[in-house]
Amino acid sequence: MELLTNAYSAENFRRQAHDLVDQLAGYLQSAQDQTLSTVIPYQSPDENYRYWQADFAEGSGDLNAFFNEVISRSTHLHHPRYMGHQVAPPLPVAALAGLLSGLLNNGMAVYEMGLVSNPLERIVSELLAQRIGFDPQTSSGLLTSGGTLANLTALLAARAVHAPTVWQAGSSEKLAIMVSEEAHYCVDRAARIMGLGTGGIIKIPVNDRFQMRTELLGDYFRQAQADGLRVFAVVASACSTSTGAYDTIPPIADFCEKNGLWLHVDGAHGGAVVFSEQYRHLVTGINRADSVVVDWHKMLMVPALATALVFRRNKDAFQTFHQQAQYLWADQQSTDWFNSGKRTFECTKLMMSVKIYAILKTYGEKILAENIERLHSLAQYFAGAVASAPDFTLALWPESNIVCFRYQPENDMAAVNERNSLIRQRLLAEGRFYIVQTTLNGAVYLRVSIMNPLTTTHDLDALLTEIRGMV
Ligand SMILES: *Cc1c(COP(=O)(O)O)cnc(C)c1O
């Protein structure tokens, strides 16, 4: 019992927490001023496994030393030369809210276990719904664990509304969705989980800017009908992951209205632009969607995971899951917003809303716009630098904070592909920058997503210099 009493002791916690905060503040400083010179301390999976295996074999030890190893052996998202995947360097206040909610651990599924987080979830969802342009009287939203799960939840809601018998009776007809071939892989995965199979995922080709060719929707729709499929939803990407291309929503919305289909906008990454006057034009027409997904943990500076799913009609959100759970709520039919678990896949759920609300409460909504505008303007700068460099080429002018480019000092395309793969490997091994790569029309491109607003134009110039110096 003494072990437990000590482990729960408030005094021990105070000391451990102070130590950790000191350590994290020092880390943040060194990442931001780049005295920490490595962005990613890359080691192979097996090397890292062996390190931790040996550490574990030593048995219990010092907490500070453990935290220190975790910090130094991780990828440093707060380093200005982190430009890899689309995950936010979280605002420190949101991380603190994470510590707070981790300790309180109010699991949210029912109101009594989420007295604070359920109302905060409603408030931040109402804010987002309003910025999307939904009628605040009739829309609603929720938070869930990631864009992948949110897209699945949205498609389940779409099916519940358009094919309501499936939930009870299982599938009898062949259902299908339509989506651009550039959509995030999780849409494909969601469709397969729902039993739609390969045939039920109709991929619409993209144009030279990697946007859905909306003029083809009618032909693909008629072909699907001729093949005995019933299409119930179209997914628009806002933006796509590989290149950051935004599908043009109005013609997709027209098509959905004409044919009685559900329009889902996967704005996991780019939906955040609804917070910026300057960039919200990228998602013109988003207010005509039936459902929209936005990740708070991408351009909105919240620690992962924190994803919004917003419905144009509140009642649709309650169609997704109909199950009796007498021990949780007395009346399954009532549309009570305050019992989180009725509308979400999760039962116990993280108090995500507290992290989002902490940002809004501390800095106001304007910090969201400022971040989005900063990330986009850095991407525009970088695209300009690449476009004006004779030895680099740009895949396409970026709409978002994602830029695909390659080093191309020669014309032999096979050699250029090989060279760029090699560059990416060396960058990873040296660790002074973290960027990723992608393949576009069979060609290898380097890819940055600028996620850290403290990145400077100097850091972006330095990336080009670093790449040139590698050959
Ligand atoms: C990131 C992303 C997803 C997946 O979201 P997670 O939060 O990583 O699960 C889905 N769609 C798009 C367009 C994305 O950018």
TrEMBL record:
Keywords: Decarboxylase, Lyase, Pyridoxal phosphate. Belongs to the group II decarboxylase family. It comes from the Bacteria. The lineage of its organism: Bacteria, Pseudomonadati, Bacteroidota, Cytophagia, Cytophagales. This is Pyridoxal-dependent decarboxylase. GO terms for biological process: amino acid metabolic process; carboxylic acid metabolic process. The keyword Lyase applies. GO terms for molecular function: carboxy-lyase activity; pyridoxal phosphate binding. The modification N6-(pyridoxal phosphate)lysine is found at K298. Its cofactor is pyridoxal 5'-phosphate. InterPro entries: Aromatic_deC, PyrdxlP-dep_de-COase, PyrdxlP-dep_Trfase, PyrdxlP-dep_Trfase_major. One of its GO terms (cellular component) is cytoplasm.
